[in-house]
Amino acid sequence: KHLGRCEIFEVGPRDGLQNEARDIPVAEKIALVNRLSAAGFSRIECASFVSPKWVPQMAGSKEVLAGIERRSGVRYAALTPNMRGYTDAVAAGADEIAVFASASEGFSRHNINASIEESIERFAPILEEARHIDLPVRGYVSCVVECPYDGAVAPADVARIADKLFSMGCYEVSLGDTIGAGTPDTIARMLLAVRDVVPVGRLAGHFHDTGGRALDNIDASLSLGVRVFDAAVGGLGGCPYAPGASGNVATEAVAAHLARLGYDTGLDEGEIAQASQMARAMRG
Ligand code: HMG
Ligand code: MG
């Protein structure tokens, strides 16, 4: 069966490692990114220019971007919460950046110390500057079904923020089930609302596997036309400002699942297995 192309956006070195308790040396992070570069990804998120007081594990992001071996055809991505982060990411040579908003006020406040509206205002000059230098900007929406502070999130709220980020110039909007509370049903209802305002080809699914339903949620997304999924090698991760959030869905599990269904990911499963082993060994 050939169902066409599906892409995994690797977020392990960022979303995976940001939440690990052990102080991971920069050299280990560089080694992980270099391994992942050989596996066939076209985008790897490996840096985050956030406040080191908020997320100490990402403090070495500049050194990571300086130390990796850049493979042609791979874009090395970084998170940027504000202008300061944007300037640092560009200076460090990030190939693309990401702004991150939330569909719920509680998470927005806890994660970036701003209301949703304030966060969008912060992102506007970033998108403006990035446009001038042709730097691709990805947009995240967190808590697309449930918020650890505010409870259930309405699909219309997710659609509103996704629409906003896309209209501002984000080339893709990644929809985050930050605490893995989604089910195929709630994910589908959310996607139906978002699909009305952002072309489905510009959406990505970002599923944490807390509830053990990430692969089911990927299936629900596939049936509605989503073809990009974020995943972290070794199932690393979580979010320090989302209590209870466990790891991202594991890249090796998603790659095997997509291959079984008949999708072409262009990934080398042997390389991913080795990267996964390395990632697991990096945990505290
Ligand atoms: P704040 O405390 O409101 O900001 O934090 P501030 O402007 O008052 O700055 C506080 C201090 O941070 C100052 O230093 C600034 O200079 C410094 P001080 O004067 O106290 O020494 N600072 C910075 N340092 C480095 N880089 C920067 C930067 N900005 C300020 N860019 C802020 C506001 C946004 C900075 C903070 O809340 C923050 O960094 N938050 C990031 C939290 C985070 O990274 N969360 C995880 C990523 S999101 C996620 O994982 C979800 C996702 O995976 C999708 C999903 O699963 O849903 C994407
Ligand atoms: Mg995440």
From TrEMBL:
It comes from the Bacteria. Keywords: Lyase, Metal-binding. GO terms for biological process: ketone body biosynthetic process; L-leucine catabolic process. One of its GO terms (molecular function) is hydroxymethylglutaryl-CoA lyase activity. Residues 6-273 form the Pyruvate carboxyltransferase domain. Belongs to the HMG-CoA lyase family. This is hydroxymethylglutaryl-CoA lyase. It comes from Sulfitobacter guttiformis.
